[in-house]
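MFS transporter (Ferrovibrio xuzhouensis), 398 aa
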Amino acid sequence: MPPVSHRTVLVLTLGTAQTLGWGTTYYLPAILAAPMAQSFGVSGEWIYGIFSVAMLLTAFIGPAVGHRIDRFGGRGVLTASSLVFACGLALLGAAPNLAVFALGWGVIGLGMGMGLYEAAFATLTAIYGRNARNAITGITLLAGFASTVCWPLSAVMEAEWGWRMACFVWAGAHLLIGLPINRFMVPQATGEYTAPPPPPSQPAAGAAGGPIFDRPMILLALAFAATWITSTALAAHLPRILELAGASKTAAITAAALVGPAQVAARILEFGVLQRFHPLLSARLATITHPVGAAILLIFGGPACYLFTILHGAGNGVMTIAKGTLPLAIFGPVGYGRRQGWLAAPTRFGQALAPFIFAILLEHFGEYVLLVTSALCLTACAAMLLLRRTEAEARAGT
């Protein structure tokens, strides 16, 4: 196992690469969608629709990417993702028409499937095995600042040079920052936690030779999909929901800005206090913060908007970590990447559809759409409760 000092350097550098990856892909439309749409003479819905299709691609390639990381480690995949991100962003910047623009987002979608959290988590697990929990928490802590760092930079570049040049600059950042980090700072897996392909006579397997679709996998997939549909829906519509609940426009925007700091604060809590407990406890707590906050907001109205966003953001922050640490605790490190790919697939489908579906629900039910998101989170909580700690420990061999 690499020395602790090497692990710290890896967490800092890979966390930086993840911040760049998230900030220049997932968070890019929030700043550049409007000028992009204006440039092509279409509505903003077109840009977000193309982005949604790009997100769907990540669901299709995730299992294959995870399986490759299981076999060979993640350095090659992450390195390739930097090149793919750069190509996709360059295509966006150079796109003469909407078709090439959509192709650029398709390339970025492939990069998202290769280079964001699931691939990073699998890479760390291939290196550190069961001891990857702290490293996973560390990179999510750093990448929690992706929007904080990249939104202002994207806005400044768009204002000074236009959205196309912003895309070119971000493409260059992937070549000058992300690529060297992924190629030279990520160590190759030792082979201790990577697995060879099964003999032809055996069916495809997950961890320790077990079936990939079993009861714990189904419960985890349900819980992760439900919570991330909620997270994506709120990311798209949070200020409007807060206004409908009685907050002023200024208060709604100010409260919505607290989601990011709340996520980071919750991850610090996970890194410090909750590390001593099984990750099931963290996950269960994270699934109830949104329903509690929603109930407070619906009862007390606008003045409660700040408390709601803090509780919602805290749950998001911890669930991001749970996506990486809980499968590791339950199934162990062998076959981890492939399981992560399958667990992410329903989540990606849900994330792609969530903004559109919740826009319709918002028109009909207003702020009471939070009853739907609360039901999703409570469903996730039930799934986590059904996934007993004793069962998880038995599966992991602890």
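Confidence is low (pLDDT under 50) at residues 199-209. Residues 226 and 376 are 5 Å apart (CA to CA). ok done for today
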